[in-house]
Amino acid sequence: MLEQWIHDWGYAAVAVGAFAEGETVLLAAGYAAHRGLLNWGLVVLVAALAATLGDQFFYWIGRLWGARLLARFPRLAAQFPRVESLLRRYPHWAIIGVRFLYGLRIAGPIIIGMAGVTPGRFALFNAVGALIWAPLFAGLGWVFGQALSVLSGQVQRVEIGLLLLLALVFVVWWLVARRRGQRGQAPR
């Protein structure tokens, strides 16, 4: 049932997840791609497109309504100096990197829009960031799936070894108990 849901809705879930925060959904999609339930390349493509569109959406919210948002949401206002400082020091890297900073995935593009970054510059570096982010997190999900497969195979070998050891212990115990039983019975 879960596999059918992933097959039917997996790419839509990746798109919705990547539009906003998305790391957890993308890790899970990478794992599902490892299991053969989704196509890894399509997962990356959908995630990169949705993440780019999502950040563009939040950028325009910041550009159009930023001052009102700062007044209404003090937590967003608290992030403004941090992102603005990054933009001054590393203008292009800040646009790319804000996608990787926990807690700034939505606030970052809003604040960048408020900070006066031109739409063309934001669009270009936002897309570059998404093209780095999507294969990185989908790849981490894939690697997790691979590690789990290797670990699972090793656990199966250990299980077989433990079962054989348990059988050996049982046979030795049985032989010792039988031998003791024979010694305890003296001929009459």
From TrEMBL:
Transmembrane regions listed in the UniProt entry: 12-33, 40-61, 90-112, 124-148, 160-177
Pfam families xrefs: VTT_dom
Keywords of this entry: Membrane, Transmembrane, Transmembrane helix
VTT domain: residues covered: 22-142
GO cellular component: plasma membrane
The name this protein goes by in its record: VTT domain-containing protein
Organism of provenance: mine drainage metagenome
